[in-house]
Amino acid sequence: MKTKPGITSLRPYLQLRLKQRAAYCTTFASAILAPRFAVSLLLALVVALCSPAVLAQAKVVTSIKPLQMIASAITDGISEPEVLIPSDQSYHHFTLRPSMLRTLRQADLFVWVGPELETYLTDAVVQAGAYGRQLQVLALPELQVHHAGLDGEDSREVLIPDEGLHAGHKHKLADTIDPHVWLNTGNAWLIAHAMASALRELDPANAGVYDANLELFQQRLTALEQGIDAQSLLPADSQYAVYHNAFQYFERQFGLQHELVFVASEELQPGVRHMMTVRRAVENTPLNCLLEDVTTQAATVETLLGDKDLRRIRVDTVGQSLVSGPTAYIQLMDNVANAFRQCGAR
């Protein structure tokens, strides 16, 4: 007797469905007959999620990438700090998105330079104050701070007071603090030390790791400083210009001095009269090079120079080309040193 083709084609499908139902029923029955296993599994999951190692990890958020690099050296092996502002964006003018505000409020420790650099963050930081701890770099005692200006007389070095109403904010009339404080390795050490102290309180279970990372960071800083000091950055007769006074923390630490500053602030668009003054100065001054921050608008520099022939070297002071990690800050500063060496090369 012949079987109908339709029934024959359905037989394998029906057999498969019966096997699947049988497997499902077996699994369901096993779960009912073994409640102790389910309870044990649930308890193990709760214990794992509630263990100190999981709960105690402090979430660190920094405003800018150089601070994230320093934080990464301290939290290495524990967590990865987040950063609010992309390194290719202006630190002076930036609009915070709602997602960034949420990140700020979720931080256990938020680290920023201060209103002198991240002006737009001031209100957000005040509003987020109830959510977590904040560390303002310019308020750190003993931090070396320079003032923006066009010459050494205007760029005075001061020590930040560590108490009183104006702690961390010693302003003088007509003075503007240069906020590029991370370009001094001594300041980097103070920032790292303050981060480690805060994290020890927020995450005591990992205090030993923070201390060990801080000691390792100090050793790397010392080796970096010795390496820069051992190899002359510029020949004694070298003269160079800077587009704006962004490098004075590095220059003062390692005994360098620029000859010309093109503009008082990279935020200002130079006028025609200023442009002519700069061109005359370049023509009358023998210069090895022009050092310009990677955040400087190249088109503005080209307009300012016109057809003046001057070797230009872009310096990455914020780590745009680097990935944050425990040694990223060391690499950042080594790159800055190499830019000066490049300027001095004949």
Protein described:
The protein has helices at about 5-35, 35-50, 50-55, 65-75, 100-105, 120-125, 185-200, 205-230, 250-255, 270-285, 300-305, 330-345, and strands at about 60, 80-85, 110, 135, 145, 155-160, 240, 260, 290-295, 310-315. Helices cover about 45% and strands about 10% of the residues. It folds into two domains: about 55-230, Rossmann fold; about 230-345, Nitrogenase molybdenum iron protein domain (Rossmann fold, 3-Layer(aba) Sandwich). The strands form three sheets. The protein has a four-stranded parallel sheet with strand order 2-1-3-4, with helices on one face. The protein has a four-stranded parallel sheet with strand order 8-7-9-10, with helices on one face. Strands 5-6 form a two-stranded antiparallel sheet. The radius of gyration is 29 Å and the shape is globular. Helix 4 (about 65-75) links the parallel strand 1 (about 60) and strand 2 (about 80-85). Helix 4 crosses helix 7, helix 7 (about 185-200) packs antiparallel against helix 8 and helix 8 (about 205-230) runs parallel beside helix 12 (about 330-345). The chain is of the alpha/beta class and about 350 residues long.
Write the layout of secondary structure elements.
Blueprint: H1 5-33, H2 35-49, H3 52-55, E1 60-62, H4 65-75, E2 82-83, H5 98-106, E3 109-112, H6 122-127, E4 133-136, E5 144-146, E6 157-159, H7 185-202, H8 207-230, E7 240-242, H9 248-253, E8 260-261, H10 272-284, E9 289-293, H11 298-305, E10 312-315, H12 328-344
Parallel strand pairs: 1-2, 1-3, 3-4, 7-8, 7-9, 9-10
Antiparallel strand pairs: 5-6
